[in-house]
From TrEMBL:
One of its GO terms (cellular component) is plasma membrane. One of its GO terms (molecular function) is electron transfer activity. The gene is dsbB. Pfam families: DsbB (PF02600). Required for disulfide bond formation in some periplasmic proteins. Acts by oxidizing the DsbA protein. The chain crosses the membrane at residues 12-30, 42-60, 67-88, 139-159. It comes from the Bacteria. SUPFAM superfamilies: DsbB-like. It is a multi-pass membrane protein. This is Disulfide bond formation protein B.
């Protein structure tokens, strides 16, 4: 059985399309299903955006395939680390869940930027709540799988020797 060979440029573009699709699902869940994102959800969206922009830049630039592959994989793995924190918070016993914090808008207006970033990356009690599942996995668990898949897809481009 032969694998279908596609150019690294098309592969990077497909990675970008996947990231745009993930952001669209997040927007759908927020604006249609009325699921308010917590600070860790917002951090994961920013990581998906950064990963997607990395894929787009690699597709447009079409040079330095290996450098882009590693850079994008690092972006995706950074997002995965945020997702791991989120999944961990969701599996804490109720008595160990941190207290809920203020909304992101309030934090941005009243807290120093460093404190806001720290809260966005560590999460609050809001982040421990599971609002939605699919096949028994929460949104952060699905996002973790997506980040790991994106990192793998990016690293595949490191060894993809097909024509540009």
């Amino acid at each position: 059985m032969k694998l279908i060979k596609i150019s690294s440029r098309l592969s990077f573009f497909l990675g970008f399309v996947v990231c745009v699709s993930l952001l669209a699902v997040g927007a759908y869940l927020q604006f249609v299903k009325q699921l308010e994102p917590c600070p860790l959800c917002i951090s994961q969206r920013l990581a998906i955006l950064a990963t997607g922009l990395g894929f787009l830049l690699a597709a447009v630039h079409n040079q330095g395939r290996k450098i882009y592959a590693v850079f994008i994989a690092l972006l995706a793995l950074s997002g995965a680390s945020i997702s791991i924190r989120h999944v961990w918070l969701q599996h804490l016993p109720p008595e160990e869940v941190p207290e809920c914090g203020p909304g992101i808008e309030y934090m941005l207006q009243n807290f120093p930027l460093a404190e806001t970033i720290k809260l966005m990356l560590t999460g609050t009690g809001d982040c421990a709540k599971v609002d939605w599942t699919l096949l028994g996995l929460s949104i952060p668990a699905w996002t973790l799988l997506a980040f790991l898949t994106l990192a793998g897809w990016a690293l595949y481009q490191f060894w993809n020797n097909t024509a540009k």
